[in-house]
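Q: Hi! First time doing this. I have a protein sequence and I read that you can turn it into a structure. Is that right? Here it is:
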Amino acid sequence: MSEYEAEFPGFGRFLAGFVSALLWTATDDDGDPLDEHFGAADVPRVSDLADSCAAFLRATLPDGRTVFDALYPYDMGKAGHDFLLTRNNHGAGYWDGDYPDIGDALTPVANTFQEVDLYTGDDGALYLWPPTLEVRS
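A: Yes, that's right. Below is the predicted 3D structure, encoded as structure tokens:
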């Protein structure tokens, strides 16, 4: 999503980390992680996911910094991965120690974003849940 790269250098890595975590945490009907059968190119509605990630990076922390400004010194791919884990309440994410100076501030912001998930349809294709992805502004 190059439209966000100028505003958020490293955005492509952030989004790739988010999508990778989405595939890694979602499972098929047999309980196998979807990343065993699908890749990032198979994920639908990536533009909706990008909009959601950009909205998160624009959010303001209690100290007045944007999430992006707080995260920029960190690995953006890992930060995207942890955004998915935190917003979907997977038991790991920003609060688990990898972001000692900002984790406690990032977690409540990430938790304001609705959970997202992937599932395999009867046609074998991937679909994003929920059907309409709410984007915070």
